[in-house]
From TrEMBL:
It is an enzyme of class 3 (hydrolase). It comes from Streptomyces variabilis. This is Probable cytosol aminopeptidase. Gene3D superfamilies: Leucine Aminopeptidase, subunit E, domain 1, Zn peptidases. The keyword Cytoplasm applies.
Length: 512
């Protein structure tokens, strides 16, 4: 990952390959033209005060994500200035919002792949801004080339190696709060990028056993207690949901429990992740065109894993238990059939009407297992339904909950983290569609509102009186389009930052 430092060096004398500055869209007082953002005063001066004019000549407008490169002024040690668009200027003097900085830093870091060292002279008003720029750089510079041909060592496997070093100017390197903000950004981004790696790893290399082994190793490294239930243990414990989904695969399912505990904890947060390492649909096989990206179906488990490790690295004063429900959903002679009835860990029976509605089955067992510890709250994360993608698009995740206040808390955490999320209801009338003539409930209901039906199904496997929220990240988990801001193609690490923020809130006693 890119090496990050806070620096007070004067920009002209900096030995770097590029200087990054911010440029915003003109305001009423300067219609149309770009405006250079604070933090780049020395650069503006070196262009005789007319940098905005130069940028305008080059076609820059300050639009979000826009990148304009220009030769550095005479006397600068760095050869290149890269102006990155911040979008609209902030209202009044409140400074740019963290997400605008994060996105701009990410776009700049992406544009600088193949470069060794860059200095970022973006507008920082407080430590949180420094943290946002750090996150943007570290997340934007991400690339996944473990499976690319070696290429030449100098340029990296992908043609261009990620930006190697970044110096953040304008912060206070000796100030504790600035240092802490950057350290937090490094821990969270490293774990988030690791979640992306897991999501991007092809399903022939990342089966439930392999995922569990990665979790075990990381837990050991960070002092997290880990327990892995293999197939035998799952049979013994009666985890019919996880076993039923894994039954068709040559790679057996696993349930991984990660426990991070703090001696100063006042709250206990449980996180549950859907970890389908590949979703073929099972006997209700997905048609071609719908299964090429289904290695991403373990994104929820990857997010939970990353969040628990990040909480441990940050030493948060809260207990966080992560549950990874891992299985591969495949069709075969031993696979669960549509029409089969599973006896779940909770004791309830489920008639499987569609084997492609497998996520709710593995989550049901993990939710019930998490409930046995009576945590203060449970949050599950899952690439659960195509219906949620239809409802909210590919960048926003849906939040459902059995408690309106908690749903609002999760939404606030997402907002603070810079992740688009939206509250969704759990309409009671949709429960009827899941009535089964044979079992306690069916794993499918009405097609319309399918994301909410799935939420209602999960709710039945949450222990009595436990506060619970469900994040359906089917849209934002995997970016099939081009990269934008700090979001790469492929696995995005959706929900990691929201979960970390939630754990921080829990540590501060702010769960409801
Ligand atoms: N993993 C899919 C949901 C999904 C769709 C994730 C698109 C990411 C992108 C899930 O297991 C699934 O197949 N859901 C079905 C449920 C249906 C059969 C009730 C769906 O949404 O079609
Ligand atoms: Mn499915
Ligand atoms: Zn699935």
């Amino acid at each position: 990952m890119t090496a990050l430092t806070l620096s007070t060096a004067a920009v002209a004398g900096l030995r770097a390959d590029a200087i990054v500055i911010g440029v915003a869209k003109g305001s009423a007082s300067k219609p149309g033209g770009p405006v250079v953002a604070p933090g780049a005063e020395a650069v503006v001066q070196a262009y005789d005060g007319n940098l905005a004019g130069v940028l305008e000549t080059l076609g820059a407008s300050g639009a979000e994500g826009e990148v304009t490169k220009l030769p550095a002024p005479a006397g600068f040690k760095a050869p290149l200035v890269l102006a990155v668009g911040l979008g609209a200027q902030p209202q009044k003097d409140s400074g740019y919002d963290a997400e605008a900085l994060r996105r701009a830093a990410g776009a700049a870091a992406r544009a600088l792949s193949g470069t060794k060292k860059a200095a970022f002279a973006l507008p920082l008003t407080d430590p949180a801004d420094a943290g946002a720029v750090a996150e943007g750089v570290l997340l934007g510079a991400y690339s996944f080339d473990a499976y690319k041909d070696q290429g030449d060592a100098k340029n990296g496997k992908n043609g261009k190696a990620p930006l190697a070093e970044a110096a953040l100017l304008g912060g206070k390197p000796r100030d504790k709060a600035y240092k802490a903000a950057v350290e937090r950004a490094v821990a969270v981004s490293e774990e988030l990028n690791r979640a992306r790696d897991l999501i991007n790893t092809p399903p022939n290399d990342l089966n439930p056993e392999a995922f569990a082994a990665v979790a075990q190793a990381a837990a050991k490294e960070h002092g997290i207690k880990v327990q892995v239930l293999d197939e035998k243990a799952l049979v013994k414990g009666g985890y019919g949901g996880i076993l039923g989904v894994g039954a068709g695969s040559a790679s057996g399912p696993r349930l991984v429990k990660l426990s991070y505990t703090s001696s100063k904890a006042k709250k206990h947060l449980a996180l549950v992740g859907k970890g389908i390492t590949y979703d073929s649909g099972g006997i209700s096989l997905k048609p071609a065109g719908h299964n090429e990206t289904m290695k991403c179906d373990m994104s929820g488990a990857a997010a939970v894993f990353a969040a628990v490790v990040a909480a441990a690295r940050l030493g948060l004063e809260v207990n966080v238990t992560g549950w990874l429900a891992l299985a591969e959903n495949m069709p075969s002679g031993s696979a669960t059939r549509p029409g089969d009835v599973l006896r779940m860990y909770s004791g309830k029976t489920v008639e499987v009407l569609n084997t492609d509605a497998e996520g709710r089955l593995v989550l049901a067992d993990a939710l019930w297992a998490a409930s046995q510890e009576k945590p203060d709250a449970i949050v599950d994360v899952a690439t659960l339904t195509g219906a949620m993608v239809l409802a909210l698009g590919s960048r926003t995740f849906g939040i459902m909950a059995n408690d309106d206040d908690f749903r609002a808390v999760v939404r606030e955490a997402a907002e603070e983290a810079g992740e688009p999320a939206w509250p969704m209801p759990l309409p009671e009338h949709l429960r009827k569609g899941m009535e089964s003539s044979t079992a306690d409930i069916a794993n499918m209901g009405e097609r319309m509102g399918g994301g909410l039906v799935a939420g209602l199904f999960l709710r039945e496997f949450v222990g009595e009186g436990i506060t619970w929220a469900h994040l359906d990240i089917a849209g934002p988990a995997f970016n099939e389009g081009g990269p934008f801001g700090y979001t790469p193609k492929g696995g995005t690490g959706s929900a990691v930052r929201t979960l970390v923020r939630l754990a921080e809130r829990a540590a501060a006693g702010e769960l409801s």
